[in-house]
Amino acid sequence: MAGSKWLGCVGLALVLALAAPGIAAARCNSADGIVAEDATELVTDPADDPAPPQDDAVLDAGARAGETIPIDLSRDLTSLTGLRGRYTDDAPVLGLRIENRPGFNPKTSCNALIPVLYKPAIETLPDGTLRASVEQKRFLLDFDPKTVTAAWIQDADPSGQFFWIFPSRFGASSGGKKAWPMTTAYAARYDRLAKGSNDRRWVAEAYMLAALRVYRRNTLNQGFPMGPLPTGADLQAALVAQLGYACDDKPDDLVCVAHRLIEMNETRPPNPEISRDAFRISDAIYENSGVSTGIRQLDFGTGNAQAKALVGKLLPKTVGKDARYRRPVRKWDVATVNRWYGKDGRIANSELSRPQDKALLVESHAAYIIEAAQTWGARLDKAYPDWPPAERTALGMFAIDLENVTGKALARPVGALGACEVMTTRNPASKDATSGNLALVLSQKRRVRNGVALLQTVPSLKDVDMSCLAPMLSPPAPAPPV
Questions:
Q1: Which residue, among 130, 163, 10, has the nearest Cα to 60 in the 3D structure?
Q2: Torsion-angle region of 149 (φ positive above 0: left; ψ -120 to 50: alpha; else: beta)
Q3: What does the alpha-carbon distance between residue 476 and residue 4 come to, in Å, rounded to a whole number?
Q4: 199-208: b (≥16 Cβ within 10 Å) or e
Q5: Which of 261, 295, 169 is nearest to 446 (CA)?
Q6: Residue 78: phi, psi to the nearest 5?
Q7: Which residues contact 202 (CB under 8 A, 6 or more apart)?
Q8: pLDDT at position 475, please?
Q9: Starting from the edge strand earliest in sequence, which strands make up the sheet with 94-100, in order?
Q10: For the chain, which residues score pLDDT lower than 70?
Q11: Is 463 helix (H, G, I), strand (E, B) or coil?
Q12: Looking at residue 176, what is its pLDDT?
């Protein structure tokens, strides 16, 4: 559906502001370090928050219960956490419509889509359930607010563009109402920006689009991968075949410690199998990411050489066939998004469940680790020739693992005296308290903690001083008793 069909009902001023000339280029999703603790995990895992779900607030819609009200994302919300605001506080459900951004230009806008948020008209049915409706009941949902546990429901309308979201659960863990780290980060940034500003509206847009992508990705991946999973032993065998020696014989080689750390992070004891996420479709959500898969998370929306070489073999019926899927997801239009989540994403997951795909992903990851060790070894030899070899190996291990999971390379500040100093370096051009390498480290605390522990198991590396990381990697202290 073209964006022009809905201008009259959602507010012309909103759309004109989006397309107005002179708007500064948007900072896309996590360009300023807003990332989740671990993007490889399903953020809706009930283990995140074991508290039982609570009922939404009792409906008190007041005099405007029967109205459909478009929400101004830069003015009407007071917080993205819980989507609180002057029209949303009394709403047990909200409508979220996704439209193409008119004249999308990636140089001046971030996402090709626009989320339009509504307070729906609400009526109470004879059996006590509620009916929410938007656009003269074209979009309609009957529900009992006391029993709903979902964070979102896609409307039955054939356009595939309308969703119902429950404010207290959208952007929160499935077991309760604890906000995701991503939600908290975006809400904090939103609150710091001027009410009515373009930047404030963009942060709200980016958050709702990113959160919905997380939910839709998780739904798409339910039941996949099919069949048995490769194990850590399979990965070790592939590495030995390509290296020509076993890491047991050279445990302090950079390629071997990097392999062990990635294996530790992706193959969690006591389960010997490699993470299921490595063999199903992923979507890193942030910045310029595209559809991805693999232990390394091969991103098919970038210029990565290995991803380009393998996409036709791994996904011949979908991503390898249709170039529209080989772009960053934020550049997809509504038709492409609907086709992906409605059909082709499941086909892609079926392709990745084939034994030959799983084997190819294991072999390609072994090749990646070897190449990454060579690349980072040369980088660190050049940047820090006076460091002890163990110091360079330790930093290289962290750099390879962080780049593997995030796609971001650690910066190498001139004159740094050791690995710990490099990893806690902030971006001098940023005003954010956590920026640069430090932001990257903090976004992946679990993985970095595993790396610090791994160093202690290698005799030649155990004396590398990583103590500066201890305060920031420690789990938060328990709250004092009331």
A1: 130
A2: alpha
A3: 49
A4: bbbbbbbbbb
A5: 261
A6: -100, -15
A7: 26, 110
A8: 65
A9: 69-70, 113-119, 94-100, 162-165, 152-154
A10: 1-65, 175-176, 267-270, 287, 475-482
A11: coil
A12: 61
